[in-house]
Amino acid sequence: MPDEVIICAADKNDVDPAALDQSGLPVRVLFSERGLCRQRNQILRAASNADVVLFLDDDFLMAPSYLEEMERVFCADPSIVMCTGTVKADGITGPGLAITDALAVLDRQPATATGETSPIYNGYGCNMALRMAPVRVHDLAFDENLPLYGWLEDVDFSRQMASHGRIVRSARLIGVHLGTKAGRTSGLRFGYSQIANPIYLMGKRTMSLKHASAQIARNLAANTIKLFAPEPWVDRRGRFYGNLRALADLARGRLAPQNILSLE
After folding, report:
1. Model pTM above 0.70
2. What is the spatial distance between Cα 186 and Cα 154, in angstroms, rounded to a whole number?
3. What's the CA gap between 68 and 108, in Å, rounded?
């Protein structure tokens, strides 16, 4: 079981005290201004004495053995500073998964997971564990210049951590990402971030030219090709116009991730 669960919410209505009381876990609830990076930094400050912190999105379900296997990974190899799990089903690439479907996926997994760790470029933000020693020593933090949804914040933080040890994926850490669509940023804002954030991270040197250009090209192509036959769960028109707004700002030398705050 976890030593402590820390929830950082933007509003008191985001938290169900009765459900937390029934969990039997030590839970601390924090509040922060809305924004993924701000909220994660609040958790880092609150967990300053922890050895390992596991960040979970609110739509990620762990297999029962997840925390045990996570602890084993970090104890077995001091060179590992970040570990992410293996996502057996990910609703982010489609309409999203129902909890019943996610639980069915987990029920089909063997009781004892097998497999090793493998090096990766970055952790996946929906389930991302990090060793706190380098965070404290080097005063690492999520970049609050990536506002609201903070897209690619996991890449940025991972590459900061990569200077101090290994980043791996473990086949023994099993989970399912529901990919919930409600409560996300608008298509226009996300489309802008699809261009602005990788270019900003490339300037910070926390994202390589290869990774940034591939990310931008993939998103531009998807939003353009699917503009006239969009998926029901994706605002392709909003993303497409967000891409165009970002490219226009890039041409004028005004491109910045924070510009999404002024977009409707």
Report:
1. yes
2. 20
3. 19
